[in-house]
Design a protein that fits this description.
The chain is built from ten helices and twelve strands. It folds into two domains: 103 residues, Beta-Lactamase (2-Layer Sandwich), CATH 3.30.450; 144 residues, DD-peptidase/beta-lactamase superfamily (Beta-lactamase, 3-Layer(aba) Sandwich), CATH 3.40.710. By secondary structure, the protein is α+β, with helices and mostly antiparallel strands. Helix 1 packs antiparallel against helix 10, helix 2 runs parallel beside helix 6 and helix 5 crosses helix 6.
């Protein structure tokens, strides 16, 4: 490392960049090794982390796998035997749903949770195009519906198995009319609470010396992703993790929610700036490469 206090240097540079770019950041948390620094532009309140929640859903499935309750290669047909399945959907697994590779198309809408009596049933009755990338909040929602068949209420399961050990209390995940968590979004957390999830992930499932999640599940969040497109930063998607920018990988929620990993550094940003998020993510990586990360 090139700085005595690399987290503070990275923070100071990123604050200056956010201000110069006009990036509408709300909070920033930098952790490099054991060094930590943070900054706020707005009051420290819980806000929807959007698709970072998909990473939390992956952790839910990982915990259930560690508990021997499911396998990620269980088929939806096994987990939800009473659901009508579209053509090819009988071969879709929990892993396919969490990696957006089910090939089932159901576009996002602002009223996604109320457009059908049961979103999971609507999703599964549609045909699959095979193992191709098809990003959809309905995919994560359906994965958590399937998981609930083995763990009960997923929100309650996470409160006990994940959030409580991290010291995150009274999590109020938004729910659909059927009472299930929205899964792909609707999870309000403070910047520092997201950073705790980042620390758990950076340390491959360990938190303050206690193993919460097996390390292979953390690795699967960013390794061996499916081809998602051709644009840099959006060309490979693993279990909720996008590859890039550069050598980094990230969980990326709408409107600039970022949890970005590179070496022993993890940077958390919360914001309300969808258009500026990619440029700010690239700036994070550039600063980390210069200040804090060995080649």
């Amino acid at each position: 490392m090139t700085a005595a206090h690399p987290a503070s240097e990275v923070r100071d540079r990123l604050v200056a960049i956010a201000d110069s770019q006009g990036f509408a950041a709300h909070g920033l948390h930098v952790r490099i090794g054991d060094d930590t620094a943070g900054h706020r532009w707005t009051p420290d309140v819980r806000e929807d982390v959007h698709s970072i929640a998909k990473g939390v859903c992956v952790l839910a499935a990982a915990l259930a796998a560690d508990d021997g309750l499911i396998h990620l290669d269980d088929t939806v047909a096994t987990l939800l035997p009473e659901h009508e399945l579209g053509e090819g959907v009988a071969r879709v697994t929990l892993r396919h749903l969490l990696s957006m590779s089910s090939g089932i198309d159901l576009p996002w809408s602002e009223t996604l949770m109320t457009d059908w009596p049961d979103l999971a049933r609507e999703f599964l009755r549609r045909p699959s195009r095979g193992r191709v990338f098809q990003y959809s909040n309905a995919s994560t929602y359906t994965a958590m519906t399937a998981l609930s068949a083995r763990v009960g209420d997923v929100g309650d399961y996470l409160s006990t198995r994940l959030f409580a050990p991290l010291g995150i209390e009274d999590v109020g995940w938004s729910r659909c009319p059927n009472g299930r968590i929205e899964a792909g979004g609707g999870l309000p957390l403070r910047t520092e609470e997201v950073a705790r999830l980042g620390m758990l992930i950076r340390d491959r499932g360990s938190w303050q010396g206690r193993r919460l999640v097996a390390p292979e599940w953390i690795d699967a969040m960013h390794e061996h992703g499916v081809v998602a497109g051709v644009n840099p930063g959006y060309d490979r998607y693993a279990l909720a993790g996008w590859q890039g920018p550069g050598r980094a990988w990230r969980l990326h929620g709408a409107h600039g929610q970022l949890l970005l990993f590179l070496g022993d550094a993890v940077v958390t940003a919360t914001a309300h700036d969808h258009a500026g998020a990619d440029a700010f993510a690239a700036a994070i990586v550039a600063v980390l490469e210069e200040v804090a990360v060995s080649p």
